[in-house]
Amino acid sequence: MRALAVALVLAAMAGGCGRDGDRDDVQAVTDRFYAALEAGDGETACAKLSTDTRTELESQEQEACAEAVGSLEVEGGDLTRVQVYVTNAKADLASGESAFLSYTEDGWRLSAVGCQPVGGKPADRPYDCELEA
Amino acid sequence: MRRFVYDNGLGLFFGTLFLATLVAQAFVGHADFNHGQMAHHGDPVSLGRYVGSSEFVVDVLENWQSEYLQFTLFILATVWLIQRGSPESKEPGNEGGESDKEQKVGSHATERSPRWARVGGLRTKVYSNSLVIVMTTIWIASWAGQAIAGRVAYNAEQLDHQEAALTLGQYLGTSDFWNRTLQNWQSEFLAVGSMAVLAIYLRQRGSPESKPVGAPHASTGVEG
Questions:
Q1: E strands within chain A?
Q2: What ipTM was predicted for this assembly?
Q3: I need a surface site. Which of A54, A87, B21, B184 has the fewest CB within 10 A?
């Protein structure tokens, strides 16, 4: 019976925060996006954005994503923390900014970048993002 | 084999129903989850990914924990509380743990009594409460599982709205956790309470959950 109790709790944890593969993929996508931005590689950076996020950027800037993405005012930096919950993830950067990701048919893609917490409890109010879908 | 099926009909029937409905829940829950994904401009996920996620696990465990809490409280309550006229109740005057003779423990146990009912001491004490111990253990474990998986599912929604994730301690104070918990508890307590009371006046011929059809409404603790 103790084994059943342990199994129940483990089942909950196993269905939890995100499998190791997901965490690695989230980290890789985020790293590649910021590296591409720094290198001026708009095509690669845009490929790491979700479809809706790309569409939003192009709508905001009235130009193609590969050209518009370079105008984003984001700081980037080393990843300090990755959190994965089912089909959503958050990557915190050393600069204090965060990025949000969604799991899509093409894998993990950035749904919001250049995000900062606003006043009050971060859990109660959405982050203010430079770009979001 | 036939003898096994005959002797275990009740357990096999509900075990089969449980497995069938759990599988059906997986398919329907998967469709429902993907409907939500599309509504949030997300992409659908595979059945395997959904079943392995906290979305499915919390939907399962929030129901398990309330069922086992129901059994735990019902088993305990029927030791001390009376419902006159109900087959779910002991007869008035028999409240409490009853005598060793009535419970056939220790020197009053028979050759066919379970060994731990005969041996006395701590083992008999544990065995005498084994049903509540097991039900309570499963309840607490599944409630803990609900909390752990529920936090993950809740945080997925948080991140989808660019809000911060919660720790487990923070999640235990949320309306989401208590809404999941209490919506299940209310139905369990209603079900067992209404069963105890309805069975005073209503009958189901042949069921041990009912009094005999011709038994008086006032007769308590009798089975059909």
A1: 79-85, 88-93, 98-104, 107-116, 128-132
A2: 0.86
A3: B21
